[in-house]
Amino acid sequence: MEKRELLDKNRKQTGEITMTDGNRPEGKYIPIVIIIIRNNQNEFLIQKRAEKKNGKWASTGGHVIMGENSLQAILREVSEEIGLLLKENEIEMVFTKKTYDCFVDIYYAKKDVDVRKLKLQKEEVDKVKWANIDEIEDMKRNGEFLKSHYDCLKECIYFLEKVEEEKKECIN
After folding, report:
1. Cα–Cα distances in Å, from 90 out to 27, 93, 130?
2. For residue 127, which phi and psi values (nearest 5 degrees)?
3. How far is Cα 96 from Cα 73, in angstroms, rounded to an integer?
4. Complete domains list, the chain, with CATH
5. Average pLDDT of the residues of the chain
Protein backbone atom coordinates (compact mmCIF):
# COMPACT_ATOMS: atom_id res chain seq x y z
CA MET A 1 0.00 0.00 0.00
CA GLU A 2 1.11 3.49 -0.81
CA LYS A 3 0.54 6.79 0.95
CA ARG A 4 -1.47 9.55 -0.68
CA GLU A 5 -1.86 13.16 0.38
CA LEU A 6 -5.40 14.40 0.89
CA LEU A 7 -6.50 17.62 -0.76
CA ASP A 8 -9.25 20.10 0.07
CA LYS A 9 -11.93 21.29 -2.37
CA ASN A 10 -9.48 23.85 -3.81
CA ARG A 11 -6.78 21.22 -4.43
CA LYS A 12 -4.66 22.47 -1.55
CA GLN A 13 -2.81 19.88 0.54
CA THR A 14 -4.43 19.35 3.93
CA GLY A 15 -1.46 17.71 5.63
CA GLU A 16 -3.56 14.56 6.02
CA ILE A 17 -2.48 11.22 4.58
CA THR A 18 -4.42 8.13 3.53
CA MET A 19 -3.36 4.77 2.15
CA THR A 20 -4.22 3.70 -1.40
CA ASP A 21 -7.01 1.46 -0.18
CA GLY A 22 -8.06 3.75 2.68
CA ASN A 23 -11.28 5.66 3.10
CA ARG A 24 -11.31 9.40 2.71
CA PRO A 25 -13.10 11.75 5.06
CA GLU A 26 -15.98 13.67 3.51
CA GLY A 27 -14.85 16.81 1.71
CA LYS A 28 -11.34 15.45 1.08
CA TYR A 29 -9.99 14.61 -2.34
CA ILE A 30 -7.18 12.56 -3.84
CA PRO A 31 -5.24 13.25 -7.03
CA ILE A 32 -5.66 10.77 -9.90
CA VAL A 33 -4.00 10.65 -13.33
CA ILE A 34 -5.21 9.17 -16.63
CA ILE A 35 -3.55 9.19 -20.03
CA ILE A 36 -5.23 8.99 -23.41
CA ILE A 37 -2.81 7.54 -25.97
CA ARG A 38 -3.82 7.79 -29.65
CA ASN A 39 -1.97 6.37 -32.64
CA ASN A 40 -1.78 7.63 -36.22
CA GLN A 41 -4.77 5.44 -37.20
CA ASN A 42 -6.93 7.40 -34.72
CA GLU A 43 -7.14 4.41 -32.36
CA PHE A 44 -6.77 4.56 -28.62
CA LEU A 45 -4.54 2.36 -26.47
CA ILE A 46 -6.78 0.72 -23.89
CA GLN A 47 -6.17 -1.88 -21.24
CA LYS A 48 -8.35 -4.59 -19.75
CA ARG A 49 -7.99 -4.31 -16.02
CA ALA A 50 -7.25 -7.42 -13.97
CA GLU A 51 -10.33 -9.23 -12.69
CA LYS A 52 -9.57 -8.18 -9.09
CA LYS A 53 -9.67 -4.56 -10.38
CA ASN A 54 -13.16 -5.12 -11.94
CA GLY A 55 -12.00 -6.57 -15.29
CA LYS A 56 -13.23 -3.64 -17.38
CA TRP A 57 -11.49 -1.89 -20.23
CA ALA A 58 -10.05 1.54 -19.43
CA SER A 59 -7.28 3.99 -20.17
CA THR A 60 -4.01 3.74 -18.26
CA GLY A 61 -3.89 5.68 -15.01
CA GLY A 62 -3.76 5.58 -11.26
CA HIS A 63 -3.08 7.43 -8.06
CA VAL A 64 -0.56 10.14 -7.37
CA ILE A 65 1.41 8.86 -4.40
CA MET A 66 3.01 10.90 -1.66
CA GLY A 67 6.03 12.87 -2.86
CA GLU A 68 5.05 12.77 -6.53
CA ASN A 69 3.57 15.40 -8.76
CA SER A 70 0.96 14.58 -11.38
CA LEU A 71 3.42 14.30 -14.27
CA GLN A 72 5.70 11.95 -12.34
CA ALA A 73 2.69 9.84 -11.41
CA ILE A 74 1.43 9.35 -14.96
CA LEU A 75 4.90 8.47 -16.24
CA ARG A 76 5.24 5.92 -13.41
CA GLU A 77 1.77 4.43 -13.94
CA VAL A 78 2.31 3.94 -17.69
CA SER A 79 5.70 2.33 -17.06
CA GLU A 80 4.44 0.07 -14.24
CA GLU A 81 1.13 -1.02 -15.74
CA ILE A 82 1.98 -1.51 -19.42
CA GLY A 83 5.77 -1.22 -19.60
CA LEU A 84 5.72 1.84 -21.86
CA LEU A 85 8.44 4.37 -21.18
CA LEU A 86 7.23 7.82 -22.13
CA LYS A 87 9.26 11.00 -21.94
CA GLU A 88 7.91 14.23 -20.48
CA ASN A 89 8.02 15.92 -23.87
CA GLU A 90 5.84 13.19 -25.42
CA ILE A 91 2.81 13.95 -23.28
CA GLU A 92 0.77 16.97 -22.32
CA MET A 93 -1.75 17.59 -19.60
CA VAL A 94 -5.00 18.44 -21.31
CA PHE A 95 -7.18 19.37 -18.35
CA THR A 96 -8.15 18.60 -14.78
CA LYS A 97 -11.56 17.27 -13.84
CA LYS A 98 -12.97 17.47 -10.32
CA THR A 99 -15.26 14.63 -9.24
CA TYR A 100 -17.03 13.99 -5.94
CA ASP A 101 -13.79 12.69 -4.34
CA CYS A 102 -10.91 13.19 -6.82
CA PHE A 103 -9.01 15.66 -8.91
CA VAL A 104 -8.30 13.83 -12.18
CA ASP A 105 -5.48 15.13 -14.38
CA ILE A 106 -6.03 13.98 -17.96
CA TYR A 107 -2.89 13.56 -20.06
CA TYR A 108 -2.63 12.96 -23.80
CA ALA A 109 0.01 11.41 -26.05
CA LYS A 110 0.09 10.77 -29.78
CA LYS A 111 2.26 7.69 -30.22
CA ASP A 112 2.38 4.51 -32.25
CA VAL A 113 3.15 1.55 -30.02
CA ASP A 114 3.48 -2.15 -30.81
CA VAL A 115 1.24 -3.66 -28.13
CA ARG A 116 2.96 -7.05 -28.52
CA LYS A 117 6.11 -5.51 -27.04
CA LEU A 118 4.48 -4.10 -23.92
CA LYS A 119 5.18 -5.76 -20.57
CA LEU A 120 1.97 -5.85 -18.57
CA GLN A 121 1.77 -5.71 -14.78
CA LYS A 122 -0.39 -8.81 -14.25
CA GLU A 123 -1.75 -7.61 -10.88
CA GLU A 124 -3.25 -4.60 -12.69
CA VAL A 125 -3.69 -5.41 -16.39
CA ASP A 126 -4.84 -8.53 -18.28
CA LYS A 127 -4.32 -7.23 -21.83
CA VAL A 128 -3.98 -4.15 -24.00
CA LYS A 129 -5.16 -3.30 -27.49
CA TRP A 130 -5.83 -0.48 -29.90
CA ALA A 131 -9.50 0.41 -30.38
CA ASN A 132 -11.29 3.10 -32.35
CA ILE A 133 -13.93 5.30 -30.77
CA ASP A 134 -16.81 3.21 -32.19
CA GLU A 135 -15.40 0.04 -30.60
CA ILE A 136 -14.95 1.85 -27.29
CA GLU A 137 -18.50 3.20 -27.43
CA ASP A 138 -19.78 -0.35 -28.02
CA MET A 139 -17.76 -1.58 -25.02
CA LYS A 140 -19.19 1.22 -22.90
CA ARG A 141 -22.77 0.40 -23.98
CA ASN A 142 -22.16 -3.26 -23.13
CA GLY A 143 -20.80 -2.37 -19.69
CA GLU A 144 -17.29 -3.51 -20.61
CA PHE A 145 -15.60 -0.09 -20.46
CA LEU A 146 -15.13 1.83 -17.22
CA LYS A 147 -17.57 4.76 -17.32
CA SER A 148 -15.28 7.30 -15.66
CA HIS A 149 -12.49 6.55 -18.14
CA TYR A 150 -14.92 6.68 -21.06
CA ASP A 151 -16.09 10.11 -19.90
CA CYS A 152 -12.49 11.34 -19.66
CA LEU A 153 -11.72 9.97 -23.13
CA LYS A 154 -14.73 11.71 -24.68
CA GLU A 155 -13.91 14.99 -22.92
CA CYS A 156 -10.29 14.75 -24.05
CA ILE A 157 -11.32 14.18 -27.67
CA TYR A 158 -13.73 17.12 -27.51
CA PHE A 159 -11.07 19.36 -25.98
CA LEU A 160 -8.45 18.40 -28.58
CA GLU A 161 -10.91 18.99 -31.43
CA LYS A 162 -11.68 22.47 -30.06
CA VAL A 163 -7.96 23.26 -29.85
CA GLU A 164 -7.49 22.17 -33.48
CA GLU A 165 -10.43 24.35 -34.58
CA GLU A 166 -8.96 27.36 -32.76
CA LYS A 167 -5.55 26.77 -34.36
CA LYS A 168 -7.15 26.71 -37.80
CA GLU A 169 -9.04 29.93 -37.05
CA CYS A 170 -5.81 31.63 -35.94
CA ILE A 171 -4.04 30.61 -39.15
CA ASN A 172 -6.85 31.86 -41.37
Report:
1. 34, 11, 19
2. -160, 165
3. 14
4. 3-171 (3.90.79.10)
5. 92
Reported confidence tier of residue 160, pLDDT bands at 50, 70, 90 = confident
Q: Are 64 and 29 in contact (CB under 8 A)?
A: no
Q: Evaluate if residue 172 carries a pLDDT over 70.
A: no
- Check residues 1 and 8 and name the one with the higher pLDDT: 8
* SS3 state at 52: helix
Burial (0-12, 13-18, 19+ Cβ within 10 Å), 145: buried
Residues 6+ apart with CB under 8 A from 55: 48, 49, 126
List, in sequence order, the alpha helices (H) in the chain: 70-82, 133-141, 147-171
At residue 124's C-alpha, the angle toward residues 113 and 44, to 5°, is: 30
What's the pLDDT tens digit per position in 6-63? Answer: 999 999 999 888 887 667 778 899 999 999 999 999 999 999 999 999 999 999 999 9
Phi first, then psi, for residue 78 (nearest 5°) are: -65, -45
